[in-house]
Design a protein that fits this description.
The complex is a heterodimer of chains A (about 290) and B (about 350). Chain A is mainly alpha-helical and about 290 residues long. Chain A has eleven helices and two strands. Chain A has one domain. Chain A has a two-stranded antiparallel ribbon with strand order 1-2. In chain B, strand 3 and strand 4 form a beta hairpin. The radius of gyration of chain B is 21 Å and the shape is globular. Chain B: This is Branched-chain amino acid ABC transporter permease.
């Protein structure tokens, strides 16, 4: 029983960052209809920004997170402006392949710049975990959960309470009509991609110090993000949050009770099962953002 | 005209080992040829039914593992204390089994994944390939996991009355790959010009209309998936017996991407496309090797993929064919210059 409680606690910590990853991808996928293969690279990028700020610039650990969010935002906007905007109106396969090209080039760029040796980030948190009865959790992981929850809340408010968010939701429903009503659709696309990318970078910056940082770390993260989006339904933020926690639970239980070798297979199994049995996602009430 | 070109191309490819003595280049040509066969099988799905499968390497890898395990033998425990022991068989049987097994997998994957379309289809196929990779990595008793299956025997061709011919040298393997590639090419060509090929293209262009004129969507797509997977399995088997070592990295996503790039750059839906694109991208790393670090090569690889999609979205072969046809009919194609002069944007 105590083992199960420990799995639940781990699931909460992991699920928070998975939710961040999933929200970023579901916004891009839902609003722009782009299968964003660079999402994992943005996750890697965020983790390396964390490493640079803490170790190469010698600045504060807590400052690194906002820097990573900002850097992810800028890189995302740059990708959208240079690669996606010129291809507006092409079919989904073309943009998908262009994103694959960008992913290969950027991941190899990371390998070139930082090398293949995994890096770890020193954190200001004490080594000793917080012990609550039968379960223990490290302070770093608690901080990761709190920061992820905060970022999810900010994104939720941004989508549901601001003018930009309303324009994004309108574009998701019908971009032609939104355009006729005076929404600058190009600007919405760039903002959506930038926001989604900054969330991926934030997830990388948060999980990087928990594990280690290496150029290919984003590959699995991207697949997990796809699993979460498929679980939660396209463009569904609440679905992405729930999907993130379901995936984390499946991985924890799979690693704990089946075999740790198959931990990372859970995401794929979920993708295949959901698409076969309920292709609209588990929580699709209606097709909308929010 | 077309037949003459094909015969000329085959003759040119067959003459290569006569004047090319460099073993490194010959090796690059053999592995490129194997991947070109994989790309041709992917083109059957991508170019003629419009389904972008990004898990195609799964069938290639399954073919490689089935063929290697058939010829090496294995001894695994089953639930309930039973053991499944397989004595080594001749590699040529491994090649046949690889085709059958990969084709069967193609049937079941097709049956399940064609329920969804577009981006979802892509993601299901990626997931399938990754699950297979994780099984190959973790089922150590059967596959040796990351330690790899080593000493895979070379393919031996039985010769009537004489015994058998073991294909060990690069030269022999070059002609083996060329022969299998030619058979695959002719098979696909025959297929796409048949009634079945017209059904596939009808589906790609307008699924609703195709259904309304009586084309069985599931049957057509599944049959295409089976043939495509079987050819990819044959390529995987050639790979296993040529490289003679096989590990779970064969399932790496980048290998699927390589095949996709070969098809897209050469021209999807064109029979010669994957061959042209495959030769370019298979030999690009060889050309870049003296001047770039491996990371640089991959950056260039990604950059070239993006550039092709921007400049030649339909691929090299269809673009050239169009230009050639326009010149023969005496009309110049719609030149970008003329459009620019009239003030119309080239990309509408």
């Amino acid at each position: 029983m105590s083992e199960f409680l420990q799995h639940l606690v781990n699931m909460l910590v992991l699920g928070g960052t998975y939710a961040l990853l999933g929200i970023g991808l579901t916004l891009i996928f839902g609003i722009m209809n782009v299968v964003n293969f660079t999402h994992g690279v943005l996750y890697t990028f965020g983790a390396y920004i964390m490493f640079i700020v803490v170790h190469q610039l010698g600045l504060n650990f807590f400052l690194a997170l906002p820097v990573a969010v900002l850097a992810g935002w800028l890189l995302g906007a740059a990708i959208e402006l240079t690669l996606l905007r010129p291809l507006r109106g092409s079919d989904i396969d073309t943009t998908m392949l262009v994103m694959i090209g960008a992913w290969i080039a950027m991941q190899s760029g990371a390998l070139w710049i930082w090398g293949g040796v995994a890096k770890s980030v020193a954190t200001p948190f004490p080594e000793a975990p917080l012990v609550l009865g039968p379960v223990s959790v490290s302070w770093l992981r608690l901080f990761v959960l709190a920061a992820a929850a905060f970022l999810i809340l900010v994104t939720y408010l941004l989508i549901n309470r601001t003018r930009l968010g309303r324009a994004m939701r309108a574009t998701f429903q019908d971009h032609d009509t939104a355009s006729l009503m005076g929404v600058n659709v190009d600007l919405i696309y760039t903002s959506t991609f930038a926001i989604g990318s900054s969330l991926a970078a934030a997830a990388g910056a948060l999980l990087g110090p928990v594990y280690v940082i290496f150029p290919q770390m984003g590959d699995l993260a991207a697949v997990k993000a796809f699993a979460i989006v498929i679980l939660g339904g396209l463009g569904n933020i609440t679905g992405a949050v729930i999907g993130g926690f379901i995936l984390a639970l499946a991985e924890e239980l799979g690693a704990g009770y089946v075999s740790s070798g198959y931990r990372d297979a859970m995401g794929f199994v979920i993708i295949i099962a959901v698409l076969i049995f309920k292709p609209t996602g588990l929580f699709a009430r209606s097709e909308r953002v929010g | 005209m077309r037949a003459a070109l094909t015969i000329l191309a085959v003759a040119a490819l067959a003459s290569v080992p006569l004047w090319l003595r460099d073993p490194y280049l010959l090796n690059a040509l053999i592995t490129t040829g194997i991947f070109v066969i994989g790309a041709m099988s992917l083109n059957l799905l991508l170019g003629f039914t419009g389904q972008l499968s990004l898990g195609h390497i799964a069938f290639f890898g399954i073919g490689a593992y089935v063929s290697a395990l058939t010829s090496l033998g294995f001894d695994i425990g089953l639930p309930g204390g039973f053991r499944l022991v397989h004595e080594p068989w001749p590699p040529i049987l491994g090649f046949v089994l690889a085709i059958l097994f990969a084709g069967t997998c193609g049937y079941f994957v097709g049956l399940l994944s064609f329920r969804v379309r577009g981006a979802y289809f892509v993601i299901v196929t990626i997931s399938f390939a990754e699950v297979v990779r994780l099984v190959a990595l973790n089922w150590v008793e059967l596959t040796q996991g990351p330690l790899a299956l080593t000493n895979v025997p070379s393919i031996a061709l039985p010769l009537a009355g004489v015994g058998e011919l073991t294909l060990r040298t690069k030269l022999q393997n070059y002609y083996l790959v060329l022969a299998v590639g030619l058979i695959a090419y002719l098979l696909i060509a025959r297929l796409v010009h048949s009634h079945f090929g017209r059904a596939m293209r009808g589906l790609m262009e307008n699924e609703t209309l195709a259904v309304s004129v009586g084309i069985d969507v599931t049957r057509t797509l599944t049959l295409a998936a089976v043939i495509s997977a079987a050819i990819a399995g044959a390529a995987g088997s050639l790979y296993a017996h040529y490289i003679r070592i096989i590990d779970p990295e064969v399932f790496a996503f980048i290998n699927t991407v390589t095949m996709v790039i070969m098809v897209i750059s050469g021209g999807k839906g064109s029979l010669a496309g994957p061959v042209v694109g495959g030769l370019i991208f298979g030999l690009l790393p060889v050309a870049l090797r003296p001047i770039m670090a491996p990371e640089g090569q991959w950056i260039a690889y990604g950059g070239v993929l993006i550039a092709i999609l921007f400049v030649l979205p339909r691929g090299i072969v269809p673009s050239l064919a169009q230009r050639f046809a326009a010149r023969r009919s005496g009309k110049t194609p719609l030149a970008p210059v003329a459009l620019a002069e009239t003030g119309v944007k080239e990309r509408v």
